[in-house]
């Protein structure tokens, strides 16, 4: 029994060590890929920074491509985990939506290196059926569909196709993230989130404008 307990402890310690080593590799790889780009990042540079041999890297990631894609995937998982943690204890639908917008913008403001990785992924791996960003977006879609359906049932938001809501909000945040990065916009996350939410929640038309709005069937396709 004692030997089994010792072996179990060693296994747990080895697992923890490997997980820690993997995270350290991904941390350093994320920085290098963001700074130098995929094509100009040599795994030897990464090995030198970590003070390990290239063989150590390849034990965890058999190729540079797998390492890069793992770094992008980890970044997206961290984004999803961050948003989930920020809204975990919020039940009020408008407040929950507001917190999603704020936490999304805040995460990318704090982690511009992930934006760089998303750019390089699209540039280098155009043959991928679905970029990592949209893979994670789709993975969460059904959960969000059910959530927004409940908001409609409660009368908290308008009765409209939930996929339209998800697509418009998702595309708005996605575009804002890239615009912020490329333009170097200096507006605070708080101020930008307020502006987005004001337009999303209240629209841009006044009561007079809404009264004169043409029916949807007359709008351009």
Task: Detail the topology: elements first, then pairings.
Blueprint (H helix, E strand, L loop, with lengths): L1 H35 L6 H8 L3 H7 L3 H24 L5 H18 L1 H13 L7 H8 L1 H13 L8 H22 L5 H14 L4 H6 L9
Helix pairs in contact: 1-2, 1-4, 1-6, 4-5, 4-6, 5-9, 5-10, 8-9
Features:
single chain, 221 residues, Tetracycline Repressor, domain 2, 11 helices, 76% helix, globular
Please provide a written account of the structure:
This protein has 221 residues and is mainly α. The protein has a single domain, classed as Tetracycline Repressor, domain 2 (Orthogonal Bundle). The protein has helices at residues 2-36, 43-50, 54-60, 64-87, 93-110, 112-124, 132-139, 141-153, 162-183, 189-202, 207-212. α1 packs across α6, α4 (64-87) runs antiparallel to α5 (93-110) and α8 packs across α9 (162-183). The protein is globular and about 75 Å long. The protein starts with a helix and ends in a 9-residue tail after the last helix.
User: Looking at this structure, what is the CATH superfamily?
Assistant: Tetracycline Repressor, domain 2
- Under CATH at level 1, the class stands as Mainly Alpha
Structural class: mainly alpha
Q: Tell me the series of helices and strands, N- to C-terminal.
A: HHHHHHHHHHH
Radius of gyration: 22 Å
* Number of distinct beta strands: 0
- Number of domain units: 1
Gap between N and C termini = 72 Å
State the share of residues found in helices, binned by percent.
over 70%
Number of helices: 11
Largest sheet: none
């Amino acid at each position: 029994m004692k030997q089994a307990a010792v072996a179990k402890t060693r296994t747990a310690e080895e697992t923890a060590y490997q997980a820690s080593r993997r995270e350290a590799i991904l941390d350093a790889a994320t920085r290098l890929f963001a700074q130098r780009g995929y094509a100009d990042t040599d795994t030897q540079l990464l090995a030198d920074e970590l003070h390990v041999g290239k063989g150590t890297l390849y034990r965890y990631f058999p190729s540079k491509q797998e390492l890069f894609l793992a770094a992008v995937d980890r970044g997206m998982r961290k984004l999803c985990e961050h948003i989930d943690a920020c809204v975990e204890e919020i039940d009020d639908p408008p407040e929950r939506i507001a917190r999603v917008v704020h936490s999304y913008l805040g995460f990318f403001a704090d982690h511009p290196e992930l934006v760089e990785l998303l750019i390089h992924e699209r540039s280098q791996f155009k043959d991928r059926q679905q970029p990592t960003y949209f893979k994670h977006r789709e993975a969460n879609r059904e959960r969000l569909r059910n959530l927004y359906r409940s908001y409609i049932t409660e009368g908290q938001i308008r009765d409209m196709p939930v996929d339209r809501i998800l697509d418009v909000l998702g595309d708005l945040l996605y575009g804002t993230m890239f615009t912020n990065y490329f333009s170097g916009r200096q507006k605070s996350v708080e101020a930008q989130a307020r502006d987005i939410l004001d337009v999303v929640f209240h629209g841009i038309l006044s009561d007079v404008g809404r009264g004169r709005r043409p029916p949807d069937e007359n709008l351009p396709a």
